[in-house]
Amino acid sequence: MKISYGWKICILLFFSTTINYLDRHVLSILAPELQQLYQWSEMDYSYIVMSFQVSYGLGVVLTGKLLDKFGTKWIFAIGVGLWSAAGMTHAFAKGALGFGIARFSLGLGESVNFPASVKTVAELFSPSQKAFATGFFNAGSNIGAIVAPLLIPYIAYKFGWQWAFILTGGLGFIWLFFWLITYKTPVKTALAKTVSTKSWKQVVFKKEVLTICLVRFISDPTWWFLLYWLPKFLNETKAVSTGSLGWPLVVVYILADIGSLAGGYYSSYLIKKGKGVYASRKQALLACALIALLLCGVGFTTNLWNAVLLIGLGAAAHCGWTANIFATITDIFPTDEVGTVMGVATLSAVSGGIVLSLLTGRILTLTGGYGGIFMMIGCTYIIGYILLTRLIPEIKTDETEQNGL
User: Is residue 192 part of a domain?
Assistant: First the structure.
């Protein structure tokens, strides 16, 4: 079967997202070992995590605007090159400060991936395909998370922890080769660049943009929490060693992958059946918000695999939610604004992640328990759904004006 150009590019987006998450997972997998080696406190680790989040948040605003102004091909390529090099520099870091600097550089480069990927999907796919295409490339984040706990401990044990950073960082340079020879700037995008682009303020201070920012500020921190604290949670509360993290994390992220594909497929299926675009997105978002409530139960179970199942279903809900939020952005805004909107919305999401990281460090220092944190993040999606549907009751798409549920 012949693969269309759009899906060839989407496959490349899938692999870039896989590498993106593999690179950022290396630290969380090795955190118990490195924390012992360098005697980091819980707050030291939270500051290292925060350094990535700060630079990522700053980077998405810059890259989002650059993508809208100069196009995807070279801005994406530069970002991938930067994050790949930064990932490799972790091998030469010493102590909390050195890792903080390395994480800051990694975050700056990695910030390009999602604005570039969502913008590319907006350019190449129809409304009925956008959510599934988004869910498809976003599934790469979970593949990276699945590969990491299987691959990283082996590399660290066999060759030393430094090589885990060096080898995974090098993958981005291989991806760059295929991106540069495959991607062609869409004609409509090339024409759009001849027209003066809107200022940052003209785009950002729309009610719809501010609403998306608020929703992502509330809901996205769950993913940041799972990314950086899940291995530590399993290690500290379920006695899972670094070498045994593989299968629990694999189960969580396989479920997350299923959620990413299913969430994107569900709204696309509803649209093809004749349901309104925005009504379909909202129905899928509500389903994800309800499933995410299962995270509230994590603190009440002492069994490892019960906890893994609840966390995995919560992660699946998050990924389905994200696929539909990203698709909603491409529904609401023209393609020459998508990069900028994704940038500021992701900054808001990262800001929420920073707040949660600081809260997590404090809560663990004071109580030593994760139960309250899981209850908090489990409720954020239903709150986000209520805010989204009340503040943006309806939207206009390229096809027709869609009413709310």
Answer: no
Domain that holds residue 342: 5-182+197-394
- Can you tell me whether residue 66 is helix, strand or coil? helix
- The distance of Cα 174 from the centroid of its chain, to the nearest Å, equals 22
- CATH of residue 40's domain is 1.20.1250.20
Closest CA to 111 of 80, 144, 74: 80
Confidence (pLDDT) at 247: 84
In a domain? residue 190: no
Each residue's pLDDT tens digit, 341-372: 988 998 899 889 888 988 888 888 888 789 88
Rounded CA gap, 22 and 339, in Å?
Answer: 23
Range of weakest confidence among 37-41, 82-86, 188-192, 389-393: 188-192
The pLDDT score that the predictor gives to residue 43 is: 78
Is residue 357, in this structure, part of any structural domain at all? yes
**CA angle in degrees (0–180, nearest 5) for 250-253-258:** 125
What's the gap between Cα 313 and its chain centre? 17
pLDDT of residue 200: 65
Separation of alpha carbons 336 and 370, rounded Å = 42
Tell me the C-alpha distance between 177 and 26, whole Å: 23
SS (H, E, C) 169-234: HHHHHHHHHHHHHHCCCCHHHHHHCCCCCCCHHHHHCCHHHHHHHHHHHHHCHHHHHHHHHHHHHH
pLDDT tens per residue, range 243-298: 677 788 889 989 999 999 999 999 999 999 999 999 999 999 999 999 999 999 99
How many domains is the chain partitioned into structurally?
1
Question: For residues 396 and 388, which has the higher predicted lDDT (pLDDT)?
Answer: 388
Give me the mean pLDDT over the 202-218 stretch.
90
3-state SS record for 315-384? HHHHHHHHHHHHHHHHHHCCHHHHHHHHHHHHHHHHHHHHHHHHHHHHHHHHHCCCHHHHHHHHHHHHHH
Backbone angles phi, psi at 392, to 5 degrees: -125, 80
Measure the CA–CA gap between 29 and 330, rounded to whole angstroms.
34
As given in the structure block, the two tokens for residue 358 are 């600081």
Sign of CA dihedral 35, 36, 42, 47: negative
Whether residue 235 lies inside any domain: the answer is: yes
pTM summary value: 0.80
Query: Residue 386 is inside which H or E element, if any?
Result: helix 371-391
